[in-house]
Design a protein that fits this description.
Length: 442
């Protein structure tokens, strides 16, 4: 084994299937060992069975009492909205006009974009998120700044330039042809550059002309292994607006379908006001839904319908949608999505929520085998969860009697403080408190 070998002893949880549909979906090693080689998972299992696989001379980092899970995957977030998180507005459309567009205007300045991207990535890592699908702004400089900072940290990030050529301020507008040309240049520059991946990013149907949607669909076909991300059926006013702009479409989602934008690696944020025909198309095309509970509650958009999505077997993932969302923490996002489920009559076990935030995200992005669990060869992106992070979490987790209860406590009571450390490709990229978290050597 090489000098790039590392080993971590802790409780280990990860998934190999979806616990909503398969009762042998998770692997749990209460006294576990995670062995990394060359930035990838070599093995994960019981300490008693794997200890002899640790090469001589490799010191085992001792995280006993803590829990290692795959790095969280946030499938929908806007990095330029970092500085306007928690801006009050009565609903989506006034919020966009009042706060979002003026904030995004500043990203014409590449140095401003770089500074925000740097803070944003550090904040994601503090919260245990190692992969995100990220909206930049309409400015190519905002994309170069983001990928530059992500590449510098060797993070597995997906991002793209917003395409938007109508119903927005002049200072944020591209054109159908210009937006497509810029997007193609950015694909050639950044897609698969190191760990970076590109996402075609038409903002949402109301801010694109038919010509722009047409070109976005053509790029989606020309570059089938890029991602595509947009918003759909978030808010009833928005749905009515789309109906008036595209009177010939059967539904909001059908606008995207018409232009060839439904395909594997397409990520649709919100998906609240869909109908069953839409849901069937999601499943048929392997387009995924990105569920954004903190945003949907904050903006009063609506409640995601798990029962209908599950009946149609729509690929599901979980997301913050910062700055419409109110937290960078995927644990806090679980806290809120749990309650969204309850309000709709669905019970979401903690195991399912952790799945959606890890392997579920990877699968919905067609990235299983690259990120999302601890199968051999998968990139070693992981977080160390500390059950003693706060007095209340320590007291509550000490009294849990099952894995489900322990995970539920993390999901409902946890936030950035519960993340003791974050690793990306085997490298420590965040440690909560260097004094408390110096690992003891075994
Ligand atoms: N729909 C179009 N743009 C946006 C955005 O920036 N945030 C949210 N939540 N919804 C949108
Ligand atoms: Fe969004």
């Amino acid at each position: 084994a090489s000098s790039a070998c590392q080993a971590y002893r802790a409780s280990i949880l990860h998934f190999t299937a979806d616990p909503a549909f398969d009762d042998k979906a998770h692997a749990w090693h209460e006294d576990g060992l995670l062995i990394i080689d060359g930035g990838r998972v070599h093995a994960a299992g019981d300490h008693s069975q794997l200890r002899d696989a640790v090469p001589e001379g490799v010191q085992v980092q001792d995280f006993r009492g803590k829990l290692i899970v795959p790095g969280f995957i946030d499938t929908h977030i806007h990095y330029p909205q970092t500085d306007m998180i928690a801006s009050p507005a009565p609903g989506l459309l006034p919020w966009l006009e009042t706060y979002t567009f003026p904030t995004e205007r500043k990203f014409a300045d590449g140095e401003h974009a770089r500074e925000v991207a740097s803070f944003f990535l550090d904040e994601l890592l503090r919260c245990g998120t190692t992969t995100a699908m990220v909206y930049c702004t309409v400015h190519p400089s905002s994309v170069n700044a983001f990928f530059g900072e992500s590449d510098k940290r060797n993070l597995r990030m997906v991002a793209g330039k917003i395409m938007m050529d109508r119903n927005c301020p002049e200072f944020l507008s591209d054109t159908a042809e210009g937006g497509a040309r810029d997007s193609e240049e950015l694909i050639n520059k950044w897609h698969k550059h190191g760990r970076q991946l590109y996402a075609l990013t038409p903002r949402f149907a109301p801010t694109s002309t038919e010509a722009q949607l047409q070109l976005a669909g053509e790029l989606a076909r020309a570059y089938p292994d890029t991602f595509l991300q947009t918003h759909v059926a978030e808010n009833t006013d928005e749905v009515a607006w789309v109906k008036s702009l595209f009177p010939n479409s059967r539904s909001y989602l059908d606008v995207y379908d018409h232009y060839g934008m439904m395909r594997p690696r397409a990520m649709y944020a919100h998906c609240i006001w869909l109908d069953d025909h839409d849901r069937a198309r999601m499943r048929e095309t392997q387009s995924a839904a990105s569920i954004c509970p903190t945003s949907n509650l904050f903006l009063g958009s609506g409640l995601f319908d798990f029962a209908r999505a599950d009946a149609a077997q729509v690929p599901l993932s979980l997301a913050t949608d910062v700055g419409g969302g109110t937290s960078f923490s995927m644990l806090q996002t679980m806290n809120e999505v749990y309650k969204v489920g309850r309000m709709g009559g669905t019970y979401l076990p903690a195991l399912r929520m952790f799945y959606m935030a890890t392997l579920g995200g990877a699968r919905s992005m067609q990235l299983e085998g690259t990120i999302g669990n601890f199968a051999p060869g998968v990139e070693a992106d992981f977080v160390v969860l500390d059950p003693k992070a706060t007095p209340l979490l320590a007291r509550r987790t000490a009294r849990t009697e099952s894995l489900e209860e322990l995970l539920f406590a993390f999901a409902l009571l946890g936030d950035d403080r519960a993340i003791a450390a974050t690793y990306s490709a085997g490298r420590q990229v965040h440690v909560r408190d260097a004094r408390q978290d110096v690992p003891e050597l075994v």
